[in-house]
Design goal:
Strand content: 5-15%
Bound molecules: thiamine diphosphate, magnesium ion
Order of helices and strands: EHHEHHEHEHEEEEHEHHH
Number of domains: 1
CATH superfamily: Thiamin diphosphate (ThDP)-binding fold, Pyr/PP domains
CATH class: Alpha Beta
Radius of gyration: 19 Å
Number of strands: 9
Low-confidence stretches: 1-10
Mean pLDDT: 95
Distance between the termini: 47 Å
Strand order of the largest sheet: 1-8-9-5-4-2-3
Length: about 325
């Protein structure tokens, strides 16, 4: 396969009901996490900026679900959901965003720099595109040590115009490295629409220049994301090299902080809100005969877990002043 496999968003088969229930639980948890993060930010409890992934949950949940122990994941500053989907604990992720000593990085990284090597989350990276070469390094390490591990690398549509994107995909392709490149195409880079910066509509088409498969998938359909990434992971583990996946999605909130996102046409926002990934998964479950009351309960449980984790993190200590130069490069 050396060309873009599908020009539109690929429709894939469904996943088993238990698995879909797990997916919706994880997506609701991430949505609740982002809403609580916004509340903490507005209450002035968060140092630095925040970039919420509300609306994009199906991409990270569906993609991370294909990973096994030993696999690695890298993501962007819009990475709370990705890190949680990879298994980072809710309370210590809140603690990092709040700058607490018990945070994933001792409170020194904050919202944009979440790393938890213990669960394979190798970092959310604030410099656009800078982590793609790191993903190539992780893919190379896997090949060099003869393991079957893959690296899943999330990035935005804007990153596909960065030099590091092209260098990373080229090297991964020529060395057939086990990297799953997942572009979260949310149609905007900061406050600028994609069509104003990028001369093609289908970013998956960029795979053609590296001779690797490029697949566009409905990024709001968690089952479709899971199936697409499963195939990419199988290819990578079999030694057949990387895949570029373009997951079409939309961020419900603005770019960062308190950005209300007013540069986006109202009709466009309404259209995407009507395709909320959590609502789509809920409809699919209702169609399979799942009781709406049990889904409501699952929703309340997820929100309770998030609230409890936030309260725990807020009660934790500030870092010790003595620790300020520990783990820091001079
Ligand atoms: C190299 C670099 N240039 C510029 C910026 C400023 N910046 C931060 S986010 C962003 C937009 C990136 O958009 P995209 O890749 O689509 O990701 P999204 O925020 O939509 O998830 C820019 C330009 C940066 N962080 N790094
Ligand atoms: Mg974008």
């Amino acid at each position: 396969m050396t060309s873009t496999e599908d020009h539109g968003a690929v429709e894939r088969g469904a996943v088993p009901t238990d698995q879909l229930l797990g997916f919706i639980r994880a997506m609701i948890e991430i949505r609740a996490f982002e809403e609580e993060t916004q509340r903490l930010f507005m209450a002035n409890l968060v140092r630095g900026s925040t970039h919420l992934c509300s609306g994009q949950e199906a991409v990270v949940v569906g993609a991370c679900a294909v990973l096994r122990d030993g696999d690695s994941m890298l993501c962007t500053y819009r990475g709370h959901g990705a890190v949680l989907a990879k298994g980072a604990p809710l309370d210590r992720t809140f603690a990092e965003i709040l700058g607490k000593a018990q945070g994933l990085c001792g409170g020194k990284g904050g919202s944009m720099h979440l790393t938890d090597i213990s669960c394979g989350a190798y970092g959310s990276i604030a410099t656009v595109g800078a982590h793609l070469p790191i993903a190539v390094g992780l893919g190379f390490a896997s090949r060099y040590t003869g393991s079957q591990d893959v690296c899943l690398c999330f990035f935005g549509d804007g990153a596909t115009n960065i030099g590091a994107f092209h260098e990373a995909l080229n090297l991964a392709a020529i060395w057939k490295l086990p990297v799953l490149f997942v572009c979260e195409n949310n149609l905007y880079g900061e406050y600028t629409a994609l069509h104003l910066t990028t001369p093609i509509d289908r970013l998956a088409d960029r795979a053609i220049s590296f001779g690797i498969p490029g697949v566009a998938v409905d990024g709001n359909d968690v089952s479709a994301v899971f199936h697409t990434l499963s195939e990419a992971a199988d290819r990578a583990r079999a030694g057949d090299g990387p895949t570029l996946v373009e997951a079409l999605t939309y961020r419900h909130k603005g770019h960062s902080r308190a950005d209300p996102g007013r540069y986006r046409p109202k009709e466009e926002v309404a259209e995407w809100l009507a395709r909320d990934p959590i609502d789509l998964a809920r409809s699919a479950l209702l169609e399979r005969g799942i009781d709406p009351a049990s889904l409501d309960e699952l929703h309340r449980d997820a929100e309770d877990r998030v609230r409890t984790a936030s309260e725990r993190a807020q009660a934790w200590d500030e870092p010790d002043v003595q620790s300020r130069l520990q783990d820091v490069w001079a």
